[in-house]
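Narrative summary of target 7.
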Amino acid sequence: MDQKMFCYQCEQTAGCAGCTGSTGVCGKTAETARLQDQLVGAMIGLARAAEGVECPGDRVYRTVIEGLFTTLTNVSFDDDAIRAQIEKTHREKERLLAAPVKKSAGPREKAAGESGAAASVQDTDDYNLGLLWDMDPDIRSLKSLILFGLKGMAAYAYHALMLGASDETVNQFFLTGLREIAKDGTVESLLPTVLKVGEVNLTCMAMLDAANTGTYGTPIPVSVPLVVERGPFIVVTGHDLKDLELLLKQTEGKGVNIYTHGEMLPAHAYPELRKYPQLKGNFGTAWQNQQKEFADIPAPILFTTNCLMPPKKSYADRVFTTEVVAYPGMVHIDDEKDFTPVIEKALELGGYQEDRQFTGINGGTQVMTGFGHGTILSMADQVIDAVKSGAIRHFFLVAGCDGAKPGRNYYTDFVKQTPADSIVLTLACGKFRFNDLDLGNIGGLPRIMDMGQCNDAYGAIKVAAALAEAFGCEVNELPLSFVLSWYEQKAVCILLTLLHLGIRNIRLGPSLPAFLSPNILNFLVENYGIGPVTTPEEDLKALLG
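Modeled conformation, tokenized:
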């Protein structure tokens, strides 16, 4: 049967090989997949038009960042919105081609002030991304790592941009990376670019970390209740702290409470967000449970980023989207950020008549968050003393994306079986598999420490580097193990950052990416010791030596 689409960018891709039918596992149609590929091809054309231009400008950078973010898994299902982004990309390319070239270099050099960009019309045509899917498996694998890494990094760059932060090195690399996808390449020539994605993503995550803490303060450990109080409320999901702040400001004095969901949970730890009394607690667990958890909910849900699943009829009338998130028929809050329709829906629905107690996956009634690098490093002496005394024997970073695919209970069982003299650091939505467990404390330190959202992997890296410095060793020599779960493209760019830093012996699951060819996987195994998760018992035995 002929393929109607091809997409293998997420962990749940059909048959661990690729979605090829009329609808992908994520719910997007073959037409949406085609448009997303077309958008990537248009951005490659824009990137090629910008080659040799000294400073393409903020409009070009934002167009590329928005476009890449739009093609991330579970972000946009709206074909019209994607077509509009394609048209916007074409307009930016035309504007760039018509603008005077201030500076260019190499074989495309033009005189200063000469009209027209530094690339020929043929060079700036949209790229046919279908060519990538038919390439040699190893080349396709490496270029997929570059593309998917760029998509993940674009999400972080976008959130930073919403807080007024931008970095020229990061912005320029989006263009460089996109051009690389369209160039002829060998395994030897592409590998450095793959690792460069990881290097630049480290800069990008550092930028977002500084933007988040600079705007909202250093996260402080806090216990977050899982009870929803009676009366009108709004559930906010996704990752965008700026959207949450704006909603909090607009609901002041309105009698509407706000509850985080999924990766928004860490927002409770930021002082400048926690100061709003209507930010009450957390509703639900990770993204893949939303179709069940949101069913008949007497409140609206605001999606600020992924992960959006096709809404069920039982709650579709109360789904609102914003930023690049979009779904046909759902109310979209535009860049004016007037959340009045969301607030009015909350007042109309009225919420629960009485307080409603919910639990985590394991029955817990509260969860903790706020153990960012600032907090953990402020306790560095306490941590170091605990390690030296033998009270802490091992650290595990059990982190990453959650998902619906069978096998993810591994992470719950793994954490439950970690020794009593070990600390579990976690971040991203995979933590909902175990963050409501009470594993006790070690010398006043909770055994489970939630460091934040997926981009807070930067904080985990900082903590690891600080521990290595304190003990006079390399990170790979620390009693620290990385046990990661992945689902979408942000996990890809984080993995590439860890590889760029030379981190070895990472366990990855619940299955390995379909876009890793056997040869590229063997390269990662031989050079970095990366391997699939097996069973909690076997992996704990191996990791603890």
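The CA atoms of residues 176 and 216 lie 32 Å apart.
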